[in-house]
Amino acid sequence: MELVGRRAERSAVEGLLAEARAGRSGSLTVLGEAGIGKTALLEHARRAAARSAFRMESAIGLQSEIQFAFGALHQLCAPLLGHLDALPEPQRTALRTAFGEEAGTAPDRFLVGLAVLNLLSEVAEEQPLLCIVDDAHWLDEASAQVVAFVARRVAAERLVLLLCARDPTDDGDLRSYAGLPELRLGGLSDRDARALLATAVRTPLDDEVRDRIVAEARGNPLALLELPGHAQPGQLAGGFELPHALSVPRRIEDMFHRRSRDLPSETQLLVLLAAADPTGDAALLWRAAGTLGIDPDAAEPAEEAGLLEIDSRVRFRHPLVRSAVYGACTEPDRRRVHGALATATDREVDPDRHAWHRARAVLGTDEEAAAELERSAGRARARGGLAAAAAFLQQAADLTPEPARRASRALIAAQAKHAAGASEAASELLTTAAAGPLDALQVARLELLRAQIAFHLTRDSDAPTMLLKAAGTLAPLDAALSRETYLDAFDAALVNGGREAERVHEQHEQLPRPVCHRGLRTFSSTAS
Question: Do you find a cis peptide bond into 181, omega within 30 degrees of 0?
Fold first, then answer.
């Protein structure tokens, strides 16, 4: 996409690069709706950095990779790991463990953040460094936290960290980037919109038609480039579809879908295969294509249609191409391509991605696939990826055929989702777990989690009583957890205020409790 206009935005990016050359690092988060020109601004940054002899490294967030802890961070840092020996030993160990290159306990996020900051600083000592993170709203939680940690601490490292994300109202999560310097892209001015439209339409346009196109695109550059290409000649000559309820990004996605739908069937399958693989690994794509009997020549119509390019990497013209193709495919085709990708992925080299593709190829339930996902969850948890572990566990529960094991996995997945901050998803999993069968301890844990979620989401006035009841149920089953739950009940009552703490204290005094709870009497009296 040609960068038309954007003088202030270009100046801001070029200023950051100039500051970095002078030894003053900086970061910037570029925000805007899909198609508004964020990627074009990144390309401008790359060209400006190349002219100034910057080294450039990049990563891209993918919605389909959100459950892979530190996956995006590995994209960014993998080419730099030759400098790892310059870091202190605890930081080296933390980063290697996070990337799965070394066994050990889940690494401390602070150490991982320090390791990445120092790694980038070491590289920037040799040459100014530009790090670009595109679609940052789709980074996995662990990577997003570390990237934001680094962005807040860059100082004198000759380093620029440029993040690109959709508006908070769109898909994804931007909480990790709160407080970072922002540059928000709005629509192009009317003058710039008309200049860009002139590059997309070579035939003369009636003034009324041009006005309608500009109005419908609302200054969105990708819309200005794509909308005219999908209008009939008669529309361009004397009329154009009026705006309707769909947003511009959604309309652009629909256009990419229609463009892909017109391709030969074998080409459509190849494009879907590329959309289902977030790694962009061309070798993997062709291995998977071979299992489906797709000829390499099938790529040509897709490349001619401007949807993607395949050389050593697979590159879609825009992230909306990927989402349009993947979102519009049939379930049988989706399972088919994921099955091919699972076959093409070495389970010894990349067991988690193999498990992920295999699970998405399943129709119905599959205990072996569920167990493989459960093992992936364990590896994610060991790397400190709680959100990733929760995602694997949720899918494992969905694929489990045996009711008791399914309920148990759903309960564990719900606990992990809640701990990762996804309490709504955890609540949905509790419905599956409650279908049972569960043993007594599991039922008590389910009631405890239900109370914790109620308090977390709504500060429910009944939550302290629910927690107290769960503590009483847990007392003969898990004394240590019961004691923690009593304390949680008092904390919840104090937060809610009023007579809650007194009421919890009165109910606590009426409940039987083991010796390990005697120390709570003094605490409860103080709290009430």
Answer: no
Question: Is residue 26 packed enough to be buried (19+ CB in 10 Å), middle (13-18) or exposed (0-12)?
Answer: middle
125 Cβ neighbours under 8 A, 6+ residues apart: 157, 158
Residues with Cβ within 8 Å of 516's Cβ and at least 6 positions away in sequence, in order, are 479, 480, 483
Task: Tell me, yes or no, whether 251 lies in a domain.
Answer: no
Rounded to 5 degrees, what are φ and ψ at 290? -60, -40
Asked if residues 80 and 57 have their Cβ atoms less than 8 Å apart, the reply is yes
CA end-to-end span of the chain, whole Å? 64
Question: Residue 60: which residues within 8 A CB-CB, separation 6 or more?
Answer: 72, 75, 133, 134, 135
Spatial distance between the Cα atoms of 473 and 440, rounded to a whole number of angstroms: 9
Please check whether residue 452 lies inside any domain of the structure: yes
127 CB-near residues (< 8 Å, 6+ apart) = 53, 54, 55, 158
Do 276 and 337 form a contact (C-beta atoms < 8 A)? yes
Domain count across the chain: 4
Examine residue 247 and state whether it is found in any structural domain, yes or no.
no
For 398, the token pair is 């969905």
Q: Which pLDDT value is given to residue 514? A: 46
Rounded to an integer, what distance in angstroms lies between the CA atom of residue 329 and that of residue 501?
54
Of 435, 455, 470, the last residue of a domain is 435
Tokens 């400098």 belong to residue: 83
- C-alpha 192/C-alpha 201 separation (Å) is 15
Give the dihedral sign, CA 508/511/515/516.
negative
Q: Is 467 helix (H, G, I), strand (E, B) or coil?
A: helix
CA 334 to chain centre: 20
DSSP class of 176: G
Are residue 283 and residue 295 in the same domain, yes or no?
Answer: yes
**Residue 321 belongs to what domain range?**
259-344
Distance from chain centroid for Cα 90: 28
Q: Are residues 124 and 269 in the same domain?
A: no
Q: Establish if 156 belongs to a structural domain.
A: yes
What is the reported pTM?
A: 0.65
Question: Rounded to the nearest 5°, which phi and psi values hold at 16?
Answer: -60, -45
Q: Which of 98-112, 228-242, 342-356 has the lowest mean pLDDT?
A: 228-242
Dist. CA 165–CA 397, nearest whole Å: 32
Class of residue 437 by CB neighbours under 10 A (exposed 0-12, middle 13-18, buried 19+): exposed
Please write the tens of the pLDDT for every residue from 428-473. 899 999 988 999 999 888 988 888 887 777 666 677 777 878 887 8
Following DSSP, what letter does each residue of 39-104 receive, concatenated? HHHHHHHHHHHHHTT-EEEEEE--GGGTTSTTHHHHHHHGGGGGGGGGS-HHHHHHHHHHTTSS--
Q: Determine contact, residues 306/245, Cβ cutoff 8 Å.
A: no
